[in-house]
Design goal:
disordered C terminus, alpha/beta, 26 strands, 8-stranded mixed β-sheet
Length: 526
């Protein structure tokens, strides 16, 4: 049996956390999605176990922030241990990061996937079709993307305005656009062991990386009685009890449950291209990173946050097609940065197998004793976005390309996180009362102009603007600063550049309103 479906705005291939989060983010902007997934239910085995405060902010934007808080637990950060489990360095993470959440949180991925799918099921803009096999993705010469899939009823076809390939390392979507892997020179076989036990396991409530070239290992507590160990094993398998014995009480002979024991090949790779027309790669389809700094899933969710607001603007708000070019140009350098950090941590743990391995281990131990270095290394893993069409960054001190902090605010007697106050569109934050041209620009963008004084945030935003020498900033929907009005300045520095991407004659606004708003955008000067 075969049928041709009606055209849908967006098809998402893969219902893992990246694909479902992308669907929820698009739904908040009024974009309907169909999510195709080969599994009928949540994949039951644990995988990712850590996330950072920026990604928790993304989950908040997707509408599941409170639900995730109920299944997450803060972690102290990262320690590097030597072969005898002596601490060489400690990278502390605070419970109050700039995004409004603990800088590191531990969780169980199947629990995250369940709450994401529950949110998807509640949203009328989203439809999940499970138990299907996607068989083809192709650009149609007439414009839409054709997606074919097979289920129990036969062959089907969807025509979409855009397709998001969130289908993992063996991505069919990546093959469909002709993308190939760039090898970033790291590949090792590791055993991952998830254990449930009531034993008094030695733990510092963070992640331990054992830097031992003969037995490198990673250890962390995931839940109340859930622990994870990762080992690079040389030669044959060893019993789990012997592997984890250094962390158990002496002479412990109690029972424990091995939830999972499996082998992974940790790789460092990045796709040479992330887009062909309206087909995009996200998450593991676009990049693979070793897990040593806990950024694999985080990078994929950042992909979703970066792309979805741009795609929604192009599909429904008159954004220029060139806006979509900024997805890869902004996300790919950051993904490469994270992969390189993870590879460096991997080499720190294993020391490598060449003649310089011992020298590198001694250098690492010496570097960890430099005052202030561990505090510097423990900072956020997201460097500012580099200058581009949507980031007018003119100096190292500029706020452009950085994330706006998210303090708690109190307005009209109601305490709320900043992002709940801002909504899902652009926002202009100003240190002074907004002037007429600023209000005109905000109207043209469909944005709000909000003075930071009086927000009841204990002065966090005022101090942030002052540190960046800014009278006002333009926040993108992903809370990245796009442009700045410098202290004493009269206007944003590059309105014409980013304005041309955000508004075109393809706007879905009524003609008279569209003309008026384009005029305001051109004339927004102080």
């Amino acid at each position: 049996m075969s049928r041709t479906e009606q055209q849908v705005p967006v098809v998402i291939i893969g219902a893992g956390p990246v694909g479902v989060t992308a669907a929820l983010l698009l739904a908040r902007r009024g974009v309907r999605t169909v999510v195709l997934e080969r599994h009928r239910d949540v994949y039951p085995l644990p995988r990712a176990v850590a996330t950072d405060d920026e990604v928790r902010r993304i989950l908040q934007a997707a509408g599941v922030g409170e639900e995730f808080a109920a299944i997450a637990r803060p972690a102290n950060g990262l320690r590097l241990l030597d072969a005898r489990h002596r601490v060489m360095a400690e990278f502390r993470r605070t419970e109050h990061g700039r995004h409004g959440y603990p800088q590191t949180s531990m969780f169980d991925q199947p629990e995250l996937e369940r709450l994401l799918r529950d949110a998807l099921a509640r949203n009328p803009q989203c439809e999940l079709r499970g138990g299907v096999e996607v068989t083809g993705v192709a650009l149609d010469s007439a414009g839409p993307v054709r997606v074919t899939y097979r289920d129990d009823d036969g062959e089907h076809e969807l025509r979409a305005e855009a397709v998001l390939g969130c289908d993992g390392a063996n991505s069919l979507t990546r093959d469909a656009i002709g993308a190939v892997w760039e090898d970033l020179r790291f590949e090792e076989r590791w055993t991952v062991v998830d254990v449930r036990t009531n034993a008094d396991v030695r733990c510092w409530e963070g992640v331990d990386q054992v830097c031992d070239p003969h037995r490198p290992a990673t250890f962390m507590r995931v839940g109340e009685d859930r622990y994870r160990w990762e080992f690079r094993l040389e030669g044959g398998d060893e019993p789990v009890r012997e592997l984890i014995a250094p962390w158990l009480p002496p002479s412990y002979d109690g029972a424990f449950e091995v939830v999972r024991e499996t082998q992974y090949t940790f790789r460092a790779r990045i796709a040479d291209r992330w887009r062909s027309g309206r087909i995009f790669l996200l998450g593991d389809a676009a990049h693979l990173t070793p897990p040593f700094i806990g950024q694999g899933l985080c990078a994929g969710l950042r992909d979703a946050y970066n792309l979805t607001w741009k795609l929604a603007r192009v599909l429904g708000q008159g954004g220029d097609e060139r806006l979509l070019d900024t997805y890869e140009s902004e996300r790919k350098p950051h993904a490469r940065h994270v992969i390189r950090l993870a590879v460096a941590m991997g080499w720190a743990m294993t020391g490598g197998q060449d003649s310089a391995a011992a020298l590198r281990r001694r250098s690492l131990a010496a570097a960890c004793r430099i005052p202030g270095l561990t505090q510097l290394a423990g900072r956020d893993l997201s460097p500012p976005l580099t200058a581009g069409p949507l980031v007018r960054r003119r100096s190292r001190r500029s706020l452009a390309g950085t994330h706006c902090p998210q303090p708690w605010t109190t307005t009209a007697g109601r305490r709320t996180r900043l992002d709940e106050l801002l909504g899902d569109s652009f926002t202009i934050l100003t240190a002074t009362e907004p002037w007429p041209a600023l209000n005109a620009l905000a109207h043209a963008l469909g944005a709000r102009t909000i003075p930071v004084t009086g927000l009841g945030d204990d002065g966090t935003l005022t101090a942030w603007l002052r540190s960046g020498r800014a009278d006002a900033v333009l926040l993108r929907p992903d809370r990245v600063v796009a442009d700045v009005v410098p202290t004493g300045g009269s206007d944003f520095t590059a309105t014409a550049t980013w304005g041309a991407l955000l508004h075109t004659t393809r706007s879905t606004l009524p003609p008279l309103q569209q003309t008026a708003e384009k005029s305001l955008l051109r004339s927004a000067t102080r």
